[in-house]
Input
Amino acid sequence: MLAEDSFSGSAEAESRALIQQMSQSLGLLRVAFDSTGEAMLIVDESSAVRWANQQAADLWGGGITLQMVGRPLSALLQFHHLDRSPLEDEEPSHPLQQALSAEGRTSYLIQALSASASEKTQLIKRSVSWRQIMQMDQSFVLLIFRDLEPLEKALARQRQFINNLAHELRTPLAIITGNLHRMRRKKQFSGNIQQSLSDATEETQRIGALVDNLLLLSELDTDYRRWTLQIDSLMNFVDRWIVMLNPESRGLLHIVTVNESDDYRVQLDQDAFHLILDNLLNNSRRFCRSQPSIEIRLVQTVSQILLQFIDDGPGINNDDHCVAVFERFNRIEEHRNADMTDGSGLGLPLVKSLMEGMGGSASCSSAKEQIGEGRQGLVVTLYFPRHKSSLGMKSSI
Amino acid sequence: MSNSWTPGAVDALRQQHNLPFVRTDAQGQVVEFNERFRLIYGWDDRLVGQTIGMILPASFRELHHAGFSRFKLTETSKLVNHPLELATICSDGAEIRSEHFIVAERCDEGGWSFAATLRPLEGPHAC
Output
């Protein structure tokens, strides 16, 4: 009996020590989270705040973390696009809606709603990242708000420089293109001169495309692109792109779905998606010697929908080159060809940036590796996160 | 952030007989409460020795425990010495919106003592 008492006594002492240790750990974590420069919030399935750190409370909770708990996020703060237009809770580009598909990050202007009337009109810019957390069968979203002001300012300066540069280049480029067109219509020029004029026109068009791509990349780098995200089957998005192509380009394409009954629902920006496919098509047309034959294959995996864009061109046979093609202004030596005008060097980097902006990614590989020996060509794979409603999870937070 | 721990702060709250009052030790365990607290929130002497988390809604407990542990490490808190609109759980599980005014005071033995008045903002005793 005495031994039992002493055993239960020591077990109780151990439990007490364990609770004290956990309590201390909780306090240490709290100190650490409150010491970061980032504001953090955890929001539950009903969009109510479950947890906040001190920076979040200082910005949106009157300085008291405890007073944010249980309150709807929409009662504490309002997200705005960078053009200052308010972002509604149900909009697909709202961080809580985006978190349903994948983790991600973008910049917003944020307005405190619980602050005093004079502070309410003030919008602060923050880089917001979101991530879904599953804990004990409950779903939460972690939101982290970073103040990127010094970096943002540097990027804004760069963006302004590129905007000015683009403006300065577009007018002379339009004049050169117009003159070249007029000269090409004149019949008195010899074949050699006509060829030179044709090369000059192509080169001018390339510089025009380069300016457009630089502007777009600069928008993506500084989060100034306004995304219009829609949820639909990837098949429908592809069909809408094909309808806009000319009959000749349409004839090059062959669409394959691995399983007709699969759910290909994704969330994407249609204009960005069209730009991605336009770039991939231009890329294939430039590298394939004759008329390319292009297969667009849709594949469903557990967490992603894949679009494989497969051509029958020379492809890339080196793993390092498969990574390098996504670097800006990087041209692969094995593809340099004196008979061919260079691309802008920004096509595939733009594809990658646009995919990342929509929460996806892109990679490339050789057709031999993906499809099998004897098959030549390049495979560019676009990875789209599956929308959570397709995974049987709640479609709204 | 408030760092000023007024001597006698706990007793000053204890004297406000018209408001529910509760005090805990440095571990956050209830040491005493007044008749007003007993009447409005329905708790009896069995609450003594229990964690103060018992009278807080579940959603607040996490931040309460973390904040309590943080206080022991840093001896600073933004929660003390000003009114906070929170909620209090009654012995029957009901939740009453209430204004908490929390103070901290260092005891003669060197440990901390925490006390609060919990003014009900709704229900028959709202004031």
